């Protein structure tokens, strides 16, 4: 005996609906609809291309800026290491008492040390390293490091009155702040009022 289920299975597929499961599935799109779809896809592709080009240009500019900075500031570590040598040359010049400058051998030695200091500072200048010697200028925390504050008659408060160690700037970046003494504000509060 043949079951009804077997008959349905042997009968083959069910007759297809002319429109298919989805109404638009079997129907061909009209040329106007296809044109609209292609134009939308073209606009999306063009937008993605423009975004990719803009991103590529931004990456190129960033890389160029980073390369320029690396080239400009590459000598920073080397220059920082040489600063103590320049400081020592200055200390050597300042350490000789005036009474000994008259001796021809001492004078020759001092002239040599001074010439070495000048040459080294000139080389620094050629490569964008500038000395900061702010005596008499207003204290600027961006370039100066205050070591002490002292009363100094005649000096306005906040003025650099003594430079203990000069600072240095490489192009526009601070390499080492100048170590300075700063004039203290006026006397007692009753005097200021």
Tell me about this structure.
The longest helix is centred in the first third of the chain and has 43 residues, at 31-73. The protein is α+β, with helices and mostly antiparallel strands and 193 residues long. It contains 5 helices and 6 strands. The strands form 2 sheets. The protein has a 3-stranded antiparallel sheet with strand order 1-4-5. Strands 2-6-3 form a 3-stranded mixed sheet, with no helix packed on it. The chain has 3 domains: 30-74; 87-127; 130-188, Head domain of nucleotide exchange factor GrpE (Nucleotide Exchange Factor Grpe, Chain A, domain 2), CATH 2.30.22. The chain starts with a helix and ends with a helix.
Number of helices: 5
Architecture (CATH level 2) name of the largest domain: Roll
What's the average pLDDT? 84
Specify the structural class. Answer: alpha+beta
**Considering the protein shown, what is the CATH homologous superfamily of the largest domain?**
Head domain of nucleotide exchange factor GrpE
Question: What spatial order of strands do you see in the largest sheet?
Answer: 1-4-5
Please identify the oligomeric state.
single chain
Low-confidence stretches: 15-20, 187-193
Number of domains: 3
- Our measurement of the CA-to-CA distance between the termini, rounded to an integer number of angstroms, reads 122 Å
């Amino acid at each position: 005996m043949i079951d009804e289920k077997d008959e349905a299975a042997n009968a083959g597929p069910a007759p297809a609906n002319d429109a298919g499961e989805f109404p638009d599935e079997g129907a061909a799109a009209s040329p106007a609809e296809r044109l609209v779809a292609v134009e939308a896809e073209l606009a999306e592709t063009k937008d993605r291309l423009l975004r990719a080009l803009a991103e590529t240009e931004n990456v190129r500019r960033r890389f160029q800026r980073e390369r320029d900075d690396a080239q400009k500031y590459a000598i920073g570590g080397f220059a920082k290491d040489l600063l103590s040598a320049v400081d020592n040359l200055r200390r050597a010049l300042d350490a000789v008492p005036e009474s000994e400058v008259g001796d021809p051998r001492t004078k020759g030695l001092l002239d040599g040390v001074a010439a070495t200091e000048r040459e080294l500072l000139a080389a620094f200048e050629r490569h964008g390293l500038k000395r900061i010697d702010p005596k008499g200028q207003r204290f600027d925390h961006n370039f100066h490091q205050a070591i002490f504050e002292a009363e100094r008659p005649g000096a306005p408060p906040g003025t650099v009155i003594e430079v203990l160690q000069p600072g240095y700037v490489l192009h526009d970046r601070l390499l080492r702040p100048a170590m300075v003494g700063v004039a203290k504000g006026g006397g007692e509060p009753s005097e200021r009022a």
